[in-house]
Specification:
CATH superfamily: GTP cyclohydrolase I, C-terminal domain/NADPH-dependent 7-cyano-7-deazaguanine reductase, N-terminal domain
Pfam families: FolB
Keywords: Isomerase, Lyase
Protein name: Dihydroneopterin triphosphate 2'-epimerase
Radius of gyration: 16 Å
Number of domains: 1
Number of strands: 5
Catalytic activity: 7,8-dihydroneopterin 3'-triphosphate = 7,8-dihydromonapterin 3'-triphosphate
Subunit structure: Homooctamer.
CATH topology: GTP Cyclohydrolase I, domain 2
Length: about 120
Amino acid sequence: MSPQPDAIIRIKNLRLRTFIGIKEEEIANRQDIVINVAIHYPADKARASEDINDALNYRTITKQIIQLVENHRFSLLEKLTQDVLDIACDHPWVSYAEVEIDKLHALRYADSVSMTMSWCK
């Protein structure tokens, strides 16, 4: 029997506020961001179980992301994205992770500016 493809956890449109940017106004005021995360892992145990310990706990991951974003200041979208990606790929079961963060209203005439980064085991 061939191995199953990875399961994918998607955290969609996590809306948070943080200090992000280099302009005086950005340093003084929190801004809205939207985070999307995709985490791939085998889920071999969880496929045949009802035990949370056999699954990757997306609630724990989301809480870590919220704590990071709400309790830190960031000058660069790149640094924020990398820090969230570090949380997403921290668990040893993770085989691939991707993070996209939108900084809303960063440019006139644009809904947002986003940064995407990924990691592969």
